[in-house]
Design goal:
alpha/beta, about 1800 residues, 7-stranded mixed β-barrel, single chain
Length: about 1800
Amino acid sequence: MKLNNRDLALRGLLGVLPPHLERYLRSTLGDRCTPEGLRALLADSDASDPPDLADLSTQIRVLTVHSDGSDGLDLSPELRTALREVGRLRDEVVSGGALNADRTLAVLDAVGETLRLIGAESDQAEVRELIAAIDGGQGAGSGPLDAVGVEVVCVPVLSYAHAVAGAAPAVSIRLSLPGYAFSSGAHASGLDASGDDQQRRTLVSEARGSQELPPGSLEVTLTLIEDDGGRQIAEPWHLTWDTSQPVLTETRTLALDRANLLQVEPGAAHVRVELRAADGAIAVRRLPGLTVLPPRQWRLDGGGRWAGAALATFVQPDQAAIGALAAEALRLVRRDEDAENADPDGSPGPDALAVAACAALRDRRVMIKAVSDPWQAGSHPIRTASGLLEACTGSVLDIAVLLAGVLERLGVVPVLLLAPKAVFLGYRRPQGDQGDQEDADGEPHVSAQDAADLIQRGVMGMIDPDLAVGASIAVLHELPDTVRSVALETLPDLTLAVPLDVARADGAEPQPMLDRDEHDVVIELAASTRPGSPDDASVLAPDAPDAPEADRSSAEDEPDSEPGPDSGSDAGSDSGAEPASAAAEALPAPPAVAEWKRNLLDLSRRNPLINRPMHDSIELMVEPDLLGRLESLINAGDLVVLRSMYDAADDASADAGDQGALLTEQRTVCIDLPAEECARRLQTMAASARTTLVETGANNLYLTLGSLVWCIDGYWVRSPLILIPVNLEQEGDTYGIVLDEAEASTPNHSLLARFKVDTGVDLVELREPVRDEHGIDVKATLDSLRRRLRRAGRRGVVVEPSVGLGMFRFSTYRMRQDLEENWPTITSNPLVGHLLKVQGSIFVEPANDDPVEDDDQVVENLPLVADSDQARVVADAAAGRSLVVEGPPGTGKSQTVANLIFRALAQGRTIMFVAEKTSALDVVARRLREEAGIGDLLLNLHDNGMKPAEVCEALRHALELQAPDAGAEVDELRGRLARLRGRLGEYREGLHDPRDGASYYRARRELIEERDAEGDGLEQAQATFEARARQTGLDAFDAAVHARLLEDYRDTLERLRKALTPELLSSVLAHRDRVLREAGSRAEELRREVRRRRGSLNVRELIDSYWDLVVAITPCLLVSPDSAARFFPADRRYVDVVIFDEASQITVAGAVGAMGRGRSVVVVGDPKQMPPAPVPGASKPGEDLEGANRRESGSILDRCLAGGVPSRRLTWHYRSRVESLIAFSNRHYYDGGLLTFPSPLAMAGRSDDGPDGYGVCLRRVEDGAYHEEKPRVRRPGVRPGTNPVEARQVVEEVVRRFEAHPEGVPSLGIITFSSHQCAAIEELLRKELGSQRVDEALEATDGLFVRSLENAQGEERDAILFSLTFSANERGDIPLSFGSLGHAGGERRLNVAITRARRQIVLFASFDPEDLHVERSAHQGVKDLRAYLEQARSGDAPRALPASHSAVDLHRNEVAERLREAGLEVSVGVGHSSFEIDLVLAAPGAGEPGRGAQPGRPRVAVLLDGPGWDRRGSVMDRDLLPFDVLKSMGWERVERVWMPEWVADPDAVVTRLVEAAGGPPPQEQPAQEPEEPASSQESEEPGQPEEPTSSDAEAGAVTADEGPDEPRSAQEEPAGVMGSAAPGPIDYRQWRPAGELPAEILDRAAQDGAARAQVVEVARSICAVESPITRHRLIVKVCRAFGLSRINAEREAQVRNILGESFAYIDEHDFVWRSMDSMQVAPPYRRRALDHVDSIEEIHPRELVALLADVRATSPEWSSPEELYQRALRRLSTRWWRWRLGSRGVLPALGAALREAEREQ
């Protein structure tokens, strides 16, 4: 038990000092140390109580009562000063509050100094021990360098924008030796003096000791570090301090590190000061208090010049979107015939240009987003112009910055003007007289008040951005007078003015455009040249620049949004454009539908289908004339080999003829990459395509033919034209592409949509390409496309004959079109219609009269085992109700879905099962096929699951199915089960139903309570129980008959399950045959179609023509969201129930299409697991370069839960074979609501990290180092973004496990915190094990997987190996941007990762948990990771719910006590969750369960029928499922004990259980009284150090001759005074008088002051030894000290009046303490207290709380309250067997203490 700083200070002030000061005081007072003498000394003659000389406050008061020395006390001035300081510190500390290390050290120094002054130097060792224990290492163990005081002054905000502006923070440092404390004036005169108006923050690290610094020089290094990534954000500052000078003060401007600031996340930063002495000693001080901002974020802080320079960099006149707006403004000005705003030379004036700029912006229909915080608070994102215009939404600051860029580009000087929560844009006007003009131009730095004055005088114009986007007039001078006057009233509030010309002259250049490279590292793009005048050609014609010769990457991330019309483009209607579709002519879609469409199809430049980045695709070298040939080969199904062109024989550059021959003769295409790079890129692409297919069900790998090079808002982009779906196949080291037959060649519909929006040109020739016998005639299509563009006048648009291979998510286009064309049908689904409403409205289920079965009926009619939670889901869903199913990890979601599908089919319903992940569908399909036997009723249409021929084959198999003979046995079995269930229910009702009074179980509990308490109501309780037993018939209970009843129920249930499948098939096939008969000729047509070798219809045509027959033949359809839109036209309802699995990863937009195909919807998922993946090309979490604060897309699961859709949660957890695997998630993410099963493995001790181990283990990787993704120095052979040492150790462990399983593949998963680490590990595995074996392991069912944190959901394996990847940087800091954990929602990813294992998790970490300073991070994911690593290292696992939440079962405890008496070792209530094994039994010699028990010894789990059993909702939950699961988890025996059986013959039950546990028969156990343990530590607590004991004789006594004025002996020191800083319990010390005092003293004490003082001193002496003591017990002991053995109520009242209320400290519990100070330093609790007091109520509640806290800390996590209470009683009494839980007051007292101990923790 570690003391905190406040405890240390209290122990020094109130524990160490007072005894020494009391002896000094008594010695100094001499004869005056009497009550009268003390009253006279204190001039306190009216006081009734003699002064308490043991109290520190009294001691100081007596010693310092007369400052002039007239009191006769010969005190030195130093001692008097020290005492007053101690008194002041005592008051400060006792008043409460935490103490930092420096303050604690000051307190203890004052105590030590006082001890020295009173001559107690030899006792200062205690103080030194306390100083050494100060939290923070700032005690005696600190080094000399810690005595240096450090003070730094710096601007509080640093950002990338400041670096671009060339701003350099002026940093001041002050170093001082002890005794040269910081003065309040130091900053003004020295540190804060700098040459500009930077407003700085002072950061201080005070000296941490008083050791003398050795002479010489110190080398000092100051660096500025951002907390999240640990990056250095400014140049380091090195200086030398000659310590012969006690103070060093220096100031320097530091250049910011632009490259590192480019990568930072918004968050905290700190100053790091390293002190290095000549002898090599180093001390590091960390001074927090700075803020760092990433690109595209700004805050008004650090002074106007500092903030203004940064803000000016966001004005980027060179942006293409700015150029487009500027060109449009010029066109508007030149069309305006009114030239009143023109300059004298006829050119447009500033006012005209300002008006035109506002008009051009207004046409873009941008909406203003309110600003929540003042500019000085938080960080404010500022969008680029392009991002703002595409989002059509921005803040007023975004608008002002954009308009400033337009004006600057047009040659007008803008001035940004900021009020507290508003922004205006000023600009220089030429109007006014010459003086005004000089005023405007003469002073370069315009203050906010200067600007306000210039605006008032009309010298400066002003634009209101709010009006600029929504009103026809936004310029101040054009506003009506009333409106203008209101605007002018805001001018005095201006706080900042930023003239752009001045900022540019000072170095604040526009920020460059930013992008991310292939490693997701932010990079700066090459800056373009700013225009020199408004007539610059780039302004006048921004839409027609020269076509680029090389690919240009996207300039910045942009939000998901469809752009508005581009008024700056030539948007005239094309003569060849198609008429508007019927969908466009229909009523407008609801806003929610429009939003869903936008979310499905990203038409911004972020979408690779709009702008294909070179680094995301691979260019193939194909001659233009050979594009058609390549397309024909691919569509013919040929494999085309890909290879590096440098693999060619001799010539590195094959000519065109060679390329043609390679393609036509060898089916080979070259890639212009070095061989090694080519192989790496292809391998990465193959892995990405494989993962995407598994994750989403869609093949996103396409061969692209042709590119359209065109301009969007002035940016050149390359858009693919034709997409051919392919698969990338590998054979050895050779890769090739082959057609994906499940897909078809398609034009780029995203390009078609965006091009038409931007230009008005409908590229019909691409939308409807020329076809040939192999698919698309590429040459003819590209030629016709060029002609169309020429006719449309699109001179700058180029059609390139390029070929590429890349990942493109085309599937979302199909879903968008589905919504576009069929939204009325889709939204007619009740749940989809509900989603159209405002979030928060309650879903109302359409009327449904279908009855819902009870849980037992449902369970009995399911093919797979189901608990009551799962049964309730099945019942609701099968009845046609829409609902949400929350399925935490391992709770049987797939089993529930399989049962639901089976039950719904049995009731004549049809199902569409939807999941993005192939694995989710496969698990359910496998269960239905292998366990339920209905695989032929499933039609797998998951995207790439089946080709058209395979669909026909599946239908053919289903048509050939014949109805089996269901037999008449099914109904008979159901009837028998109902009867058996009824008899089992009668037992439950008799046992727990409280009808007519207390239940049988409650009556038995009350009987045990009366017996243990030895109360007067024992006979009545016995009679009541016996009567209840007769009423319920349980007095005649026969355990053997009940056991046979359960076995009969189990056997009958198994027989019924086997009969369910034939029954279902008979029903479904009868319905199929009826539908086919009614279909007539259509049924024959379908039969002919499915029998053809090559069908004439594709899958969509087949479904469209015969959908009703297909659903009748295969009534369960397995699809993905994409395939539902692809194969099922949305103009009809196909199924009754749509089921979504892993719904947390499916967006609302992606789900509604499939939902619209059914009537009711069941949404299955876990809101605590992975959110939907970002759309392709979108910024990843935390990677938003524009600071637009995008949140992760909401899932259909989240939306349904928020929308009030009825929900149910699955609570039984089956996956983890060891509870520690799920304990963390259960506690942190599921509120302890999961019911988990205890494992015998967990009771054998700590976790084991071996190949056959279990639990959660942490393996520290020494010398592991993470190589950042963009290192400053490249290391040959090291892949960026990896930790090679850690990867190697993971691979070695994998190899070890493969060697341990030579006969097969181990069930093993690898999860990394970096995708690069994932690739590195797989590459190493292939080298170690061989590619073939790795491929086999990856493809094996339940074999190997290697995944990153982002795509581990849905997987589970026996063992999971984690590679945490990250490590400390060169300064020893762990970056807090811990992959995706360091962002919002990171905890959901962690939850997924740590719940994948069934048996074991091994974490490989290159750092220790305490190195992860989560206090510096705001992200919960990082904080939870730290806690999880600490748990793994300790081997512990938290309880799901506090132990106090479990009820104490006295019957269970009674059984446990009898079994212990029989020689067994028993644990009670074992488990981490609310499901507990009632008793765990071990034979003698096996060791106590959980404390080094020997593996292999019998382990018996005993289940009782108590309240927990009664709460379970079905026979399955109560009597079958726990028994079966525990057996499967390795428990050798699972025994049942029924309460009536125990009551009738407990000896027989004991004999049975002892035999089951392998112990000796009970009759062989000799009857004996328990022996008192030799020490106070009970034998059950091995590993606890024995505490020193002290006998009662050592407790000290007050003799009859000892008066109150005599000092106490050393034996009478209060129990709370300890000679060591180490806290801990002590033995109870009982006060005993040395002799008997005369009773007459007590009799006359009420009138005699001297007698009263003697009585008070006796009471204080008792308190000094036994406090805290109840007032009643104290009075009894006082009376006995005066010879009274019998104390009646009158005598007690008399003594109470004599003592009064102020003789000692009496707390709120009526316990008496020697003083309030003694209460502060009392030991936590006293052992053996129950051996000295009469009841547990006489032990202070605070002691019981400390006792229970100590017991909890030394007990296994699964310990029940009974276990904890029994251990507590063993510490409270050496005769613990006399104290039972039912004894008077025990349970209430210990229960309250446990709850408080848990609350305090």
